[in-house]
Amino acid sequence: MPRKTKLTQRKLDDEADGEDLTQETSSTRDLYGVLGVERTASHEQIRKAYHKLALRLHPDKNPGDENAKEKFQSLQNVFAILGDPEKRKVYDETGSTEDAELSSETVKNLYQFFRTLFKQVTEDDIEDFSASYQGSENERKDLKDLYVKCKGNMERVFDHLMCSDPDQDSHRLMDVINDAISADELKEFEIYKRWAKNVSQKPRPEPRKKTKKAKSSEGSEASLLALISNRQKQRNSMESLAATLEAKYSGKSKVKKSSAQFQEPSEEEFEATQKRIAQRMKSKNK
Fold first, then answer.
1. Which regions of the chain does DSSP assign to beta strands (E)?
2. Spans of the chain below 70 pLDDT
3. Is the Cβ–Cβ distance between 166 and 158 less than 8 Å?
4. Per the record, where are the segments of Basic residues compositional bias (predicted)?
5. Which structural domains are found in the chain, ordered by start?
């Protein structure tokens, strides 16, 4: 009699497993519950639970179940996530199987693809741009605009002015503002007068030493300006790819109106990009 009860319970467990594997979407079910393990289960426990269910739910062992193939495929998808440490970590953090699918190799491929669309900004690029920007007409214009907007509050000016350092640039920027005040281009605010008096009592810092990289800043500046001028075109390509991913992983047939106007990269364009990436990686390894 006890054995009969045990077999009956096992049959109920089998039916429950089948129901879990035929839920409407994979994102609505608990993957750990499908395998019948705790969320703290080890990789070995997950592997054993998967093998046990795989033997039980294999289509060859369930010829009378028309959903057997679908159940078995769903089980494989569950193990593809929980059996992969990186994908399992993403699933544990987000509870989403779609996010888990975007981990591992897929993310690396996307990163490499994005690198072909956007130039990676390095420390040398920043130093070159800083060297070309400081003392330029653009910096003087930005400084005057910020001085007016911040009503002479130089702490706020330094918070917003690119490539500026209060310890290094206070005297230099003070000279620019004083010249503009003398030329009646700017109003002298009381808060600025106090700041300028305090700065004047300090010794001027040594000029920045220009590196070899900074000597070629003219060419680097041109590259950065070209990058900025093409930002909108590149953003269109990015939003096109984002719209494609949104449609693919959200399960929606339509994308948002804001991204619907952009076209998906063609198969030929994507394959060409992948070939360029492979060739670049191959040349680096030589």
1. none
2. 1-29, 99-117, 209-286
3. yes
4. 277-286
5. 2-97 (1.10.287.110), 123-226 (no CATH), 233-285 (no CATH)
